[in-house]
């Protein structure tokens, strides 16, 4: 077996301890050209890597301090609760109105006739809902035409 002039053969006996074997494995790895090229690239980029690690450490320290700050967490949760409360209240109101309307519709056995519908068309809420439905369907139609 031929060896390079920089490599010396180190006899490994059966009684050699594990750390000596690991040292030989590391030396064998360091002798590979691709490993040496990679180490050269790493050494050349050490200033950049040190700068990046410093920035990442600062960011980690900041994130850690924010994540463990009980006052900040409490204030954030309170602010989110205040922001979400009107939305939740509105959703609950709409849901309860939908449930009540469903109950009324099931309880009433009368049919809605033409004159009852004409009378409903005078209601401002019905007019607003119809305008919304018309606009919504018009937008959906436009988008569908654009996709074709």
From TrEMBL:
Domain of life: Bacteria
A Pfam family assignment: DUF1641
UniProt cross-references to InterPro entries, sorted A to Z: DUF1641
Protein name: DUF1641 domain-containing protein
